[in-house]
## 1
Amino acid sequence: MKKLVFFMLLIITGMIYAQSDAYLELLRSDLKTEKKAIIVNVMELNDAESQVFWPIYRQYELERYKLGDKTVALLKDYVNNYDKLTNEKVDELVKQSFKIKSEELKLKEKYYNKMKKALSAKRAAQWLQLENQLDIVLDFQIAEQLPLIQKDDLPTSERK
């Protein structure tokens, strides 16, 4: 798990500051490979379960990938505008963040239900628990890399 945390830190840092789409895709591919290895190791799917699980998981990852694009764009927007954040820009970024998190939750619920139907509630919950744990690690790494908004960073006319 320590290897994953370090690896995710490198990926997130690269994702936030990536100037090249090719570089970003390479980082994402590495993350996808690491995640798959963790899922294989933790879930210990038998052959029958694997045949059912992986096609559903691949569909999930395709949809999740689109949300990842939105997250990367939001992070880049924040980093690129950090020195000139206004109350309006901060509000826009926060609202975008809420929307993305809401879409992520809906997506996880959708795929939990698919996996529950195809496997069992326990196996679907095991996947969801693992997915949530990996998301927590990822969110922590992102939060650790991003500078916190400081009161002094806001123009005097916008302070309240």
## 2
Amino acid sequence: MDYVPTTKKDVDSMIKQIGVNSIQDLLVNFKPQLSKKLNLSDPLSEMELIDYMTGLSKKNKVLKYFAGGGSYNHYSPAVINHLISRGEFLTAYTPYQPEISQGLLQAIYEFQSYICLLTGMDIANASLYDGASALAEAALLSASHTNRNRIFVNEGLNPNYLQVLKTYCNGADLELTDKIDDKTACVIAQNPDFYGNIENLQNLSDKAHKENALFVTCVTELTSLAILRPPGYCGADIVVGEAQSLGIPLSFGGPYLGFAAVKKFLLKKLPGRIVGMTTDKNEKKGFVLTFQAREQHIRRERATSNITTNQALLALMATIYLATMGRSGLINVAKISYQRAHLLQKKLKEIGFEPLNKKPFYNEFLVQTSSSSESIISELLEHNILGGLDLEENRILVCCTEQNSIQDIEEYVSLVK
């Protein structure tokens, strides 16, 4: 791959076109103009600094979250931060040389295995950047496999995911369509959808496969798969989404953890990298990067994707979370989240909120208010409650997880009553 640096002639041509004399002229507005010295205190000792910072931290509001929409406030066990802080994991780089990264490769392998168990799929990759980019990669994969250029998106997809999908499709000459026909590369459905509805995946899968299109399921709340039927058992060819729910904090929206899993026939089209388990000449178990040849540094223009790395540290967090919670623990998280959400919806209905979900829902639901949704959200925020996502037309998207206690729900209802 050739690398051609920018020549002086190129630079001169560009700055002339912009209308400046030099590159430095472009930076003049970024230099702060300090008219006086900064108002800083005298130097503090370590103890004094800790006291000062502790005082500042007490000004933070500790919110009770009833908002979801793609980011979920699940509990993160203390063991996660303890283990990922070990130097072997925290400083490990992307394993291009697998023979020196056995521990990291094993952790990735375990993550892949857990994703396959949750989704009911054959193969999962080592993770992707986030749920939105994972979904867009699924569209590219589908187009490459089917040699078609139309993408059908079922209603209810997270609007942020839809925007990322549109950006990817624009660059790849793919078209979003409103019908399923013999030119459709894939049918995309989020489950549960952005409004919390649980979709009939088998019905959508049948419609896709009737036209020889791939069926893509997007899951943004992975804890739901502890009690819902896995997409792989409903005919999904590709399952992608967000794994932030698995022990990864909200973190102001990122970094998060995308995942992708496919049926076996799509193995060589799957973006990113895949860790496999094997044995060496002494019959000892070992881990290797089984597949990565589809990446652009090897296949170049024939590559399905340009992804060359993964979110290994966050994948490790999800792996530790699942290992810590176990089957029964994850089911309990899902059941409590489900029960709390349905309890809150019932109580809001009793005081005049109109439920808008016409299908079963997991831990998110949509309600219509008779007064300003903006004022309701603002009033709750005054009491340190993030009451949901304020959507248009006085609608609020409300979410519950295991971290929303019965007392929190009672307080929410009492305040909006």
## 3
Amino acid sequence: MNQEDTNPDRRTMVKLAATAAGLAAVPATLAQAIDARGQQRLNIGLIGCGGRGTGAAYNAMDASPEARVVAMADVFDDSLRNSRHNLAKRDQCLVTDGDCYVGFDAYKKLMQRDDVDVVILATPPHFRPMHYAHAIEKGKHVFMEKPVAVDPAGIRLVMEASRRADENSLSVVAGTQRRHEQCYLDIMERIRSGEIGQPVAARCYWNMGGLWKRDRQPEWTDMEWQLRNWLYFAWLSGDHIVEQHVHNLDAVNWAIGSHPVRCTAMGGRQSRIDEAYGHVFDHFAVDYEYADGVHAMSMCRQGDGCSSKVEEVVQGTKGRAVTSSGRARLEGGSDWIFTADNPNPYQVEHQALHESIRGDSTRLNEGHRIAESTMTAIMGRMAAYSGRDITWEEALNAELDMRPEQYDFVELDVPQIARPGRTAHDAELWS
């Protein structure tokens, strides 16, 4: 494996962002592939073949009859084979042995293909910035799962790639499905029209039980164990405030209409203390402050035996809005409950992307706002890990870059569990 190809150093990444404006525009045209019925196909390449990637591929095929999965890529051969076996049950999956790519550089091999119109990016979040930037460079339309980075360096790359997507008329949709869920769309319109008055406060939650973990096998290197158990390593997942709670934070930013300007936070590790859970926290609480003095209290927890709540509440001067997946209501003023049809938002988001690509709707580029929502979550993690308040500018401009020295199946230390106010490396989080 050529490490230079798969692990660009910091100087290379900075150069990529700085010189992007000078790149030649890449035409955003569909591959001229015609199926047996004489209809033009929308060819999709899947990068990241785990459960979410496989699900997203199904959603894409359900979204458009002309959608075809034509190529797949993953670091692990067994993950790719399992996903391909499941997707092959559908006639819209046309993947052959020659259309499968394995390894850390598999994404580049897939994106080299001229017949791929759209890429689905569904690897662990750490890889999203480099995969997204490469997709835009190659002129691909993009569906990318949330979150879109795990550190400020990655966010800056995503922001630059999103700007280049605009320059090259490429369509981008992110996997924050609430943005395409009818109950959320309806209540956000009511918030915008003033039915709760001026938003003055918010709170949001993703409190739930534990998630899956994979026990380490004797033949696995450190890198393989961490990749296969990626939820529990902040360099791969961003910790669960970033990987999961970003949904709620995105909804709050949407309702308030901006990102926060500073935050203070706390968190820790009380129930998942075994080494099998890496070094991440199991709970966070963050007070986000917005430019107009609005505060949003954020809470997320993953722990068995505890109460569960996944919800957003926005308090206005005339009432409040309460939202969660499949449900929305207004209280304390213009009382209202959502009762309309609520189509599967995981499918609707792909329909929206395909319509944008075909020119059937205004072109979508959700890269900018999902970068801000992901940065909101990263900012909260940085404050909780360090025990220090942090502003938006400090967080976004921090030098924190969590990439490993190389992408290969090598030995890789587990980072220290953060001890707010005491862990030495925390002082460098935004130096």
